[in-house]
Amino acid sequence: MSTLAALLPAVPPIIGWAVHARWLHGRLTTARRDPLTGLWTRDAFTRRARRLLRDPRAVVVLADVDHFKQINDTHGHAAGDVLLATVAARLTHGATPGGVTGRLGGDEFAAVVVDRDGTMADRLHTLARVLARPVDAAPEVHTTVSLGWVRAADHPGEDLSALLRRADEAMYAAKRSGRSGPRRARLGRLLGSVAGRRPGRRGAA
Fold first, then answer.
1. pTM > 0.70
2. In the chain, % of residues over pLDDT 70
C-alpha cells in the first residue's frame, strides 16, 4: 500500500474535526456577542479592553442613553431595540480604528480607544452629536447619549475597573448637568460608589 493510500482514510476525520472546530469557534464568538447590538458582552469586552490599556494613550469611554425608559414607554420596546442597535453601531464607528466597544447591560455601553493623535476630546464631542441624531429608519426615535471619559495616563496604575468607575462618575456628572456633550473624569481620588447615588436604572429593551 502506498503512503498516499495509507493517508487517504484519515482525511475525512481530519476534515470533520476542522469543520467542527470552525463551528465551535463560531458558537463561542456568538456567545461573546450581545445578540441585539452585536457588541462584545461585558466579559469579552473586558479581556480586549485590558489589552488596549497597555498603551498609555488609551482612553476609556462610558456611554448611557438618556431617557431610555421614556423611549420604550412612548414608542414601544421594538423602537427601543432599534435605538440601542443604532447607538451601538455609531459608537463602534466612533471608536475606530483599533478600539473595542461593548454593551455592559441595558442602555449602557463602553469603549476603549487609543488616542494616537491627541484629538480624543474633539472626537467625543463629534460622537455626542452623531449619537443624538434620529434613528435613520425611525426619525421620531431619538435622544441624547451621556458620555464620560478618562485617560489612562492620568491615573497610572489603575486597572480597567477603576477607570470605568471614573468614567462613570464623569458620565453621571454630564447627565446631571443637563448639557449635551462628553465630560472628562476629574483628577484626584474617586468619589466612591456612584451606583449608590443613581436614580433607578432605565429598563433594557
1. yes
2. 75
